[in-house]
User: Fold this.
Amino acid sequence: MPHRVFAMLYCHVLAAKLTRACAVPAFLGYAYSGYWTCGQRQSLLCGADPWVWKTRTMNIPVSYTNWVTGQPNCQNQNEMCLHLTTPTYLGIGTQWADINCAWLLCPMCEMSL
Assistant:
């Protein structure tokens, strides 16, 4: 389970990219804490900065949100990345939470066929 930078590279090697998915497809099952997405704070600073989907070539503004209640909270001033939670994380369903980009999570890659 890589941290986010390695998750991005892993997807790139597969000719894919980290997903902009809003939910975990049922066929994937559930990793313990969740999955990496390509979502992050635009400037990697806590505050009112907008969230973006970061691709290899651009930042796409996040237009839909599905945050866990109380998220994003930038706990300890270092939660800059967005991950998809799973029912095993905090006892909630599949929603979004901000998280430290160095956490170890499974990447969720998407590719065009």
